[in-house]
Every structure is written in structure tokens, then in C-alpha cells.
Amino acid sequence: MLAEPRPYGGDRDWRAMLDLLVAGRRADNGTYYVHTGDVSWWLYYHDAEAVFADRIRLWERDGQLLGWALFTPEERFFDLFVHPELRGAPEAEAMHAWAEAQITAQVKALGGQNLRTMWISETDAVRRALLERHGFTHGGYVLNYMEQALTEPGADAPFPDGFEVRPVAPGEAEAEARARASYGAFQSSWEWAPYLARYRRFARSPVYERERDLVAAAPDGRIAAFAIWWPDEVNGVGLFEPVGTHPDFQRRGLGRAVVRAGLRAMWARGLARAIVCSASDNPAAVALYEACGFRAVDRLLLYEKPIV
């Protein structure tokens, strides 16, 4: 009998959640588990009103974490990660059913009309069958899952004279310039003040390391491009999330320069592989990562279900 899940309870739970993702990747059993950097980015680069502790539920048995769910009702999303030993087990089905009931009620309360879940490997017959039994269908959106081996430090990428590729400056010295770079790169619709405050909160969070926040700085002090990389040292895998170039500086090799710098840093850290995800309908991003040595090895699918 699977016990009811409980709310998130702090640092011990955070560590257990990350450990489950690491174990899932190590198992390599056909189900896709996001990188620990993905969930660190999701949960700590957040709106001040979106307290992630209120959005997480955890299933345990005899002190072991069996699975956890993250709810994002304003975007109609839920994410569920189950211990790899329970792949295809009745417990996994029960966790899905409970999480789906919760997100349905939350989305309905906001006037939403459908549910969404992401990170479903195209080759994961077990997970896809579970979703289809519950009425979900592939929603059309696809992420390319791209990787490369880190067998050598790799060459520097050329970039224009006067620019500098390095970690972001310490403290608050470049916080505004760094936030403006991502604000432009992702064409944010946020008001500027809360957007800047969000980056500053993230830079003060326990998951942030300045040395992994790489930038291409222009001669006039603006940040032209950026990339954050995240290590999973158990599995020897580094992740890039996010990567961007401000529109004023695109097509000048600066995105490639910060990614290449990140690859060298991953290699120096002793990581064996680098990964990145890119929307399949974003040819510019796909071309950037291919130019840096990445190749697509899987497709990650979005599944949707109407609320009736």
C-alpha cells in the first residue's frame, strides 16, 4: 500500500530529491530523468511569489524516497520522478494518479483547460504507455536531447577583439548587466525591476556558483552572451542551462565562445559528458550546439490531456 505523499520539508528533502534524479540517470533504464541542474534552475530562479516548497510532494517508504512531484498550475504542468527500481510498478501508476488528480484541481481553479507533462523520452515505452492509459497524448512539442563526450579540453572559439569570456564578476558588480543580457536574449515580457530582482535572488541562492555563470563581456561593459553549467559528478555529466545571446550581439560567435568555455570547465572538473536540450523548432540554437560538438541522441516529448 502506497502512503499519501507529504509536503516538502527542507534541505534533507532537497538532497533526497536530487539523489533520486542521480540514481535514475545512473540506472539508464529507458526513462528520462532530468539533470540535477535542471531542477536547481527551475526551483531557485523563481518568481518571488512562487515558493517551491508549496509545490512539491514526496512519497516515502521506510525512510526511502520513492518519488516526488512538482506542480506548476499557472503553466498547467506537473513533473513526476519515480525511483528507477519502481519503473513500471503499481506504485508508479499510483503516484501518477494522485499527482494528476492534484494538478487537475489546481489547474481547474485557475480556469485552465488542459494538463501538461514534459521530459518523456521518445523511446520510453513504459512511461508513454502509462500516460496513454490515463488519456494523455503527445502534444507536438519536442526537445532535442543533445550530448557530447568530454575527452579533451577543446579549442577556444574565436570571438571579436575587445570581448572577454569569463565568469561573471563577483558580488553585485555585474548583476544588472548580466540580467539585461538574459532579459534581451529571451525577450522577456516581465517588468524590468522584478526581473532584475529574480536574477539577484538566484545569485544569492545555495545552488548558485559564480564560477559556473559564464559571460562574454563587451568592451563597453555590457554582457553580450552567457551560459550557466551544472555538474552531476556522480554520473560525470555536465548540463548547460540556460544559454543565450543578447540580440545586439548575435551572429558574432559569442554564444559559441561561452559554451566552449563551459565545456573546458566541465572537462577540468573531471566530467565525462556534456548535455544540453534545445527545442527542435529552434534551428539557430540547434546549429549553435552542433557547432560546439553536440549531437542529438534522443527526443523528449510533451504530453497533454484535456480537462473534462
What is the topology?
Layout: E1 6-7, H1 11-27, H2 36-44, E2 56-61, E3 64-72, E4 77-82, H3 90-109, E5 114-121, H4 125-133, E6 137-149, E7 164-167, H5 175-185, H6 192-203, E8 213-217, E9 223-232, E10 237-245, H7 254-268, E11 273-279, H8 283-291, E12 295-306
Parallel strand pairs: 10-11
Antiparallel strand pairs: 1-2, 2-3, 3-4, 5-12, 6-11, 6-12, 7-8, 8-9, 9-10
Helix pairs in contact: 5-6
Would you identify the CATH H-level superfamily of the largest domain?
Gcn5-related N-acetyltransferase (GNAT)
Based on the structure given, which CATH architecture of the largest domain is correct? 3-Layer(aba) Sandwich
- Secondary-structure element series: EHHEEEHEHEEHHEEEHEHE
Major sheet description: 8 strands, mixed
Rounded to an integer, what's the Rg over CA atoms? 20 Å
Coarse shape: globular
- Report the uncertain regions: none
Mean pLDDT value: 96
- Tally of helical segments: 8
Number of strands: 12
How many domain modules? 2
Taken as a percent bin, the fraction of beta residues is 25-35%
Task: Quickly give the structural class.
Answer: alpha+beta
Strands ordered across the widest β-sheet:
5-12-6-11-10-9-8-7
CATH class of the largest domain: Alpha Beta
Describe this structure in words.
This protein has 308 residues and is α+β, with helices and mostly antiparallel strands. It has 2 domains: 6-142 and 301-306, Gcn5-related N-acetyltransferase (GNAT) (Aminopeptidase, 3-Layer(aba) Sandwich); 151-271, 3-Layer(aba) Sandwich (Aminopeptidase). It is 33% helix and 30% strand. The chain is built from 8 helices and 12 strands. It has helices at 11-27, 36-44, 90-109, 125-133, 175-185, 192-203, 254-268, 283-291, and strands at 6-7, 56-61, 64-72, 77-82, 114-121, 137-149, 164-167, 213-217, 223-232, 237-245, 273-279, 295-306. It is globular, with a radius of gyration of 20 Å. The two termini are 29 Å apart. The mean pLDDT is 96.
